[in-house]
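Hey L., structure's done. Input below.
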Amino acid sequence: MLEAAIKQQLDQYLQLMEGDVVLRVSAGEDKVSNEMLELVNELASMSSRISVERATLERTPSFSVNRPSEETGIVFAGIPLGHEFTSLVLALLQVSGRAPKVDADTIKQIQNIEGTYHFESYISLSCHNCPDVVQALNVMSVLNPNITHTMIDGAAFKDEVEVKEIMAVPTVFLNGESFGNGRMSLEEILAKLGTGPDASAFSDKDPYDVLVVGGGPAGASAAVYAARKGIRTGIIAERFGGQVMDTMGIENFIGTAYTEGPKLVASLEEHVKEYGIDVMNLQRAKRLEKNDLVEIELENGAVLKSKSVILSTGARWRNVNVPGEAEFKNKGVAYCPHCDGPLFEGKRVAVIGGGNSGIEAAIDLAGIVKHVTVLEFASELKADQVLQDRLHSLPNVTVITNAQTTEITGTDKVNGISYVSRETNESHHVELEGVFVQIGLVPNTDWLDSVERNNFGEIVVDRHGATNVPGVFAAGDCTNSAYKQIIISMGSGATAALGAFDYMIRN
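Output:
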């Protein structure tokens, strides 16, 4: 079932197993069951430490990953291939006794959790956000006997997905109740459980030389450049990696023909850690004030001080801001076609936005769904011509220009979209089951009062990355840079760090 190249790589990982593992399989006579049996038997044939037993589990087809004398609580319902194959490999290693790559404080937090927690994560194998959630919950199950986790492939359990009206992945349930949607790191899950750090955890931190606010490409680049100067550097990140974590294919990162967002972020994080930078993840800044030092107040009440600050808070998906968008988010309104597209297989969807992101989304979705309607506000599409040519070659796509979206309709979930023709002023309604919003980005700068911003909310910077506030610099998508690209953000992060260092030398 596995390709030769994958088996060769897998063989190297399986040699790292430290103890025996039992795969208990609940299988029927269906195709998915047969393929799942083929996979687990193939795994067992590759390592003497893996054995397979037949069992009856809550879901069929599924299999659990256990130690011979202990149920770990890790279950895969469906076949964990695609993006989830790594989740399976890590589960095998960690259940066998190999320690997960988690810091000691986080391990202690997980082990100290009391009570019974049964997590269920609904995923799609094409979702690049889902493995983070699956792997985090599996680690928690390995480290705490009171925690269990079942990964459920929505394509293999369509009836269950329909009954629970799951229209976005990953979707996590805890003890039968909704827990969260979208990408969540291990630290984010622990924070939702109430075990994250409070303000007291930051009270003994000395002032920094450079404090970077934001952990995307610009922030990581700025932190590395600052730390290489031998000065005390910290990062405050609401989510390390930022929106790059939600990016699938990256083909314009010079020197790398192809990579994926999560893989690039992992490299950035590893590089940052090489320099001993103080990374404070899952922390959101809410106030900046310039006194003798620059002060950054966090939402948990903690105040951090620094000689200089680099703002690299990035941007977020722009909302279309019509009735129904917020009400039906994750109930038919989505923002990631790679992640949520498979849940709309055979259904009708709309894509709002005719730029590169929107047209790429429409092309991607056209191979999965029944029909795609593209709504563009302007009189013509703004995407690259090569993308437009590809789009117009598809038989199940309709493009409507001069369309002003007025409402996303539905009852308990999306059932249509309404728009007004800007040419005729006539109102129209399209019946469908999903809407993907792809209309660009808005900078994460709402919390800044003293820093100059333009009418788009972007921070105004000079050629050194400096803002109007002495000692405060900015970089990346939150600034008035002409183009919003990963490689440009990295360059501007380096510029801001060098600018901050020059400022400290002179002051």
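The longest strand covers residues 303-311. The chain has three domains: 4-192, 201-316+441-506, 333-437.

-- N.
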